[in-house]
Task: structure prediction
Amino acid sequence: MSARVASFLDKGGTGKTTSIAHLGVALAEQGHEVLLIDLAGKQGDLAKAFGVWEDVQTSIEDDDAWPNISTVFDDAWETIVEKLGDEAVEELIVQAEEGVDLIPAHPGLDTLDAELANIDDASDRYSRFKHFLDDYIDQLGYDAVLIDLPGMTTNVTYNGLWAAQNVLAPVEMGPFEAEQVGALRDDLAKVEANFDVNVDLAMVLPNRVDSRTKLAGEYQDAYQEEYPDAIAPEYVPSSQDIRNATEQGQSIFALENPSGTAREAREAYRTNAEALVERVSED
Result:
């Protein structure tokens, strides 16, 4: 089975998509076959991060984006597979730049939460994405599957957590983010208690860290003390190059003349990617 990790924190703007994209590229650089899956919503940020969103959007507008990621949750998915065979899964996957494959988001994700809510059996409601990964994606031989989840707790989020059973929590250096990581840890404990599904907090990743400030250092120390087994080995420094690269549809690994902070971020992602896979593989 592929190493699976879902990026999640019940808050938007903490760098979940950026972290998934860069950790994916770092793993590909290290020789791993990597699949990234965007469950975060119709905005398609993961596809934008690799410069393929325009093509994906064109397919959506031309009604060619079928099947898509939202259809794998549907009762009719098995029928779709029977009809299309291997093409059913192949049609989902886009070969992105920088060595990673991608299953992009689709507008159907926006109504999926309500559709899943209509399923009375909780085990069925929350396990549909896991069955898709178990039955179809694992057969493709990826070493790692990284999943970008919505920035809020929904039925789609729970599907991603159940399927991955390992969570990456990117955090900034602020009190609200610290509270949300604590809440996430409590939520994962409730999932285990209520549904007998073990979901581990695999990595807390300090993100956009300005090491020049005293406050950032204090929060880093606090995260280290609170999550000694989950804290990432390296924090990701704040770098304008990360934002610039994303806007250009690439990662900082593709920049020809990266800044000093971008070079530091590259090394942090490489170290953290290796540590993440080791932790997940040990589980």
